[in-house]
Each structure stands twice: as C-alpha cells, then as structure tokens.
Amino acid sequence: MMETKESLTGAAVAIPYGRSAATLKAASVCFGSFTAIDKLDLEIEAGSFYTILGPSGCGKSTMLRLVSDLIPAARGEVSIFGKTTEEARLARKFAFVFQDAALLPWRSALKNVELPLEIGRKRNIDIPTGPRNPRELLELVGLKGRENALPHELSGGMRQRVAIARALVCQPKLLLMDEPFGALDEMTRDRLNLQLLDIWRETGTTILFVTHSISEAVFLGQKVVMLRANPGRLREIVDIDLPEPRETKLRDTPEFTRYCGYLRDLLETC
Amino acid sequence: MAVVETVSVPDPVADAHAAARRERTMTAAVPIATAAALILLWEVGVRGFGVPTYIAPAPSAVAATFVDKFPVLMQNFWPTFVESVAGFAVGNLAAILIAVTFVHSRHMERAFFPIAVFVNTIPILAIAPVLVLILGPGITAKVVIAALICFFPTLVNMVRGLQSVSPQTLELARILSASKSEIFWKMRLPSSLPFLFSALKISATTSVIGAIVGEWVGADLGLGALIIDATFNFNSPLLYATVFMSSGLSVLMFALVTLAERRIVRW
User: Fold this and answer.
1) How far apart are CA B191 and CA B179, in angstroms?
2) Which of A3, A50, A235, B47 is most buried (CB neighbours < 10 A)?
3) Hey, what domains does chain A have and what are their CATH numbers?
C-alpha cells in the first residue's frame, strides 16, 4: 500500500489513509523532576504530512525523540505501525533528519548516503532498501554530479539534502524531521520545502516535521500539531485544507494567510 | 577582419597568476634570506671579535666539519633514528590503546588518568637514569624514554578526539541500531584523527629529544652520545654539526607526520 507511486506533478494524490503510523497513548517524558511531555495522546495517520509547532520548550524535539526510541517514555506507551519503538527502530521503520545535517565529514556525499546500508550488515540485520540506490537518491534530491564531494565542500542546503537522501535509503515508512531547514536562508528553505513535498508525494511516506516557522508549517503540513509548553501537552490539531499539490503561489492566497493568522493567535495562548 | 595582435594585451587571469607566484616566491625567500643574513652575521661576529673556536665556531668551520665528519655523523644518526621511530611508535600506540579503554570505561579513566598525569610530571631528565639502570645500556632504555615523552600529549588528545563525536551523530548511530564496535570504527575513530595528528606532530619532535636524552645517560653510539663526546673534547664544530643533525632528524620526523596527515585527514 505504501509503495504506491505518485507522479511528481502530484495530480490525483491518493494517500493511503486508514492506518496509524504512530500512536501515543498518555505518553509522558521526564528529565529528572522536569516533565517535558505530559500525557500526550496523538494518532499519526499513515501517509500524511504532519508539521509540529509550539513555543520553545513545548517538547517538539522531545516528541520526535520519544517516537524514534532515542528517549524512553516515563509513562504511557508509544507504538509505530503496531510495533514498539524499539522493534520499529531495529526494523528501520523510521528515519531521522537532524537540524544540522549530522553528516560524517570524512565521507563523501555518496558514502554518507550509504552509511545506513553499512551499519548492521555484518551482524546480519535485515536492512530494508527502497527502489532507489544511493546514487539515484542523490539525483532525486538534486545532487547529481556531487556524489564525491565532501560535506565541507557543500553548502548548508546541499548538506541537508544529503541528509534527506540518507534518511530515505532504507525506505522508511515514517520520516522524522527536527527543524531540518531551520538554519537555512529563506530562499533555500522555500526551494527545499517544494522538493520535500515532491519526495513525500512520490514515496508515500509519513512525515513528522518539527518547525519554528508558522508559514512553513502551513505550507508543508496537511495537519499542524500545536503543542503547548510547561508541561508539553497537545493544544490542538489543525487540519490545513489547502489545494494539493502545494505550490509557491499558494503562499500569497488569503486562505494561506488565514491559516497563518489562526496559528499565530493559537501560539499566543500556548 | 582577422587582425593578429602581437602587442601584449592585459590579461587579468595571467596577471593574477603571476602575482600569486610572486607572493609564493616571497613567502619562501624572506625566511631563507633572513636565515642567511643571521648566519653571515654570526660568521662576521666570530671572526671580527676573534672568538675562540671551542667557545663558538664559525659557520664555515661547522660546515667543513659536517662534510669531513659526515660518515661519523651518519654512523651516529642511525641509532638515534631507530630509537626515535621505535619510541614514537611504542609511545603513541600505547597512548592510543589506553585512550580507547578510557573512552569505553569511566572506571579505567578514573583509576589510571591520575597516574598518567603523575608520570607526566616527572621530568624526563630525572627519570632517564632510572630507566637506564633498570633496562641497561642497550637500545631498550632509549626507546622507552622516547616512548614516555610521546605518551602523554597523545593520550590527552586521543581521549578528546574520541569524545569529539557530535551528540547528533551518536543519535544517528542509535537510530541505525549501530553496535559499539560500529560506532567506534565508523564514527569515533575517524573523528579522532585530526586530534591524533596534532599530538603526533608534537611527538614527532619530542621522540628525538627522548632518544637523545637517553643516549646522554649511557651510550657510546648515537647523536646524544656524540654531543656529550664533542662537548667533553671541546670539539665545538663537531658539537654544532651534531646539533644540526639532530634538528634535521626532528624536521624529517615532523615532515613525515605532516605528509601522512595531508594524505589521511582531507576534511
């Protein structure tokens, strides 16, 4: 079902709904006596694009790290496609894109994309692979010809695209992105937003995308998850009912501005 | 309309290249010229003031000795070279292995790091006779002294290097369910290389110091032994020639490490 290919132009996007990619049930995360996330209930529909907004300290990044088995739940439970987070991690059901690309500086772009295929190979871990090899993934993110470049020879935007290609190499069903474009200039960010939407439509993966930017959240997300701080709780899930596929000129429409305004007001109350 | 211009047209690219070439020549020429001027000043000073040769020989006398006694110098060069290289290898290898255990076990670090610091505080000149007494007058004592002097900087740098992996890289490793050995070979060890080479550059020259100090205490061959011998015989030109030979050995070791670094650390 997830392997459904969509055209890059995105006409008649059939997103496989009806299955939960991730479920959080009264999940809490504590750091010592500090409660970062408090009894969070959330159901992430498979195939959808979720953006996560909230004031700083609301546990946006913590939530991604909870889902990706980087930090344990103090209470409650988290499941990914019906499995525990650990099982999902071992099966490479999800991938993570960090704010700084977290590339290995001594490896070329191509070698960085190949890293997930190398790790665990000697231990006979079953590594899922997608229809695209690392070289083709670099082409998909627009880095054809830069395969042998070292990270320091690439711009910030290019490095982040290598990181996205690396995340896609095991064909994850869930892509967790922690402010991946936060450190980039606005033009690069807008271009990468469009590219990410193309990739999402084409791979049919589920995306959880943490951002600080309201307009980025509206532009990318089918649903915006608004969290509130102290302690981190769910404030509201806002459906973004804008025409698909999303295009740059959408940003100038009154509907887009209305969503942004609504979220800005909502953020004030968090 | 094909008019062939033979008159030189200003070419900004060629001009820039020429300027860069001039710049490069100047960066090499200035220090060389300065050194030559200082040597000349030394020659003139020694001759002008009639300084006795046993106090300070003229550069020309040193150069003449260098040529005359070249076989003797080389005969003494090889033992010191072997001791320096062996000490460099042993000391750094030990430091690297101990750094690896420190990074993987807090207990080991807590138990042994203070001891490493203590050993490092003992002046090498004070510990050299002790080691020669224990290990005898052979090559072993010199290698151990050279190794000891290399050990500490590499240990400290290597521990820092192995810990220099960014938290996000470690999170990535966790998400990929990487094993401890995969994290070590694919992430920690490569991250440590720039730190390791900083330390190796230090020990490339200090290992020579270690070997020479070892030879001072007890040896009849080697640059250190030759230095002692030349000093006691008031053979200043030979002493100076040996000193140049020693620093030549240090430069050679340093150059080899720098070359290896350029080859390996390209990021």
Assistant:
1) 17
2) A50
3) 20-93+172-269 (3.40.50.300), 103-171 (no CATH)
- Among A62, A104, A166, the strongest candidate for a mutation testing the B interface, having the largest count of B CBs within 10 A, is A104
Could you report the predicted ipTM of this complex, rounded to two decimals? 0.87
Q: Are B198 and B67 in contact (CB under 8 A)?
A: no
DSSP letter, residue A99: S
Question: What confidence tens digit (pLDDT) does each residue in B45-90 have?
Answer: 999 998 888 888 999 999 999 999 999 999 999 999 999 999 999 9
Q: Indicate the pTM of the whole model.
A: 0.83
Q: B230 CB contacts (<8 Å, ≥6 apart)?
A: B236, B238, B239, B242
Looking at chain A, how many residues does it have?
A: 270
CATH topology of domain B57-264: MetI-like fold (1.10.3720)
Q: Is B263 left (phi over 0), alpha (psi -120 to 50) or beta?
A: alpha
Element (H, E) at A29: strand A20-31
For A133-198, give the secondary structure using H, E and C: CHHHHHHHCCCCCCCCCCHHHCCHHHHHHHHHHHHHCCCCCEEEEECCCCCCCHHHHHHHHHHHHH
* Assigned token pair, A68: 């990706």
Structure-token match 């690219």, residue found: B13
- Spell out which chain B residues touch chain A, with contact meaning CB-CB distance below 8 angstroms: 166, 168-169, 171-179, 182, 186-187, 190, 193, 265-267
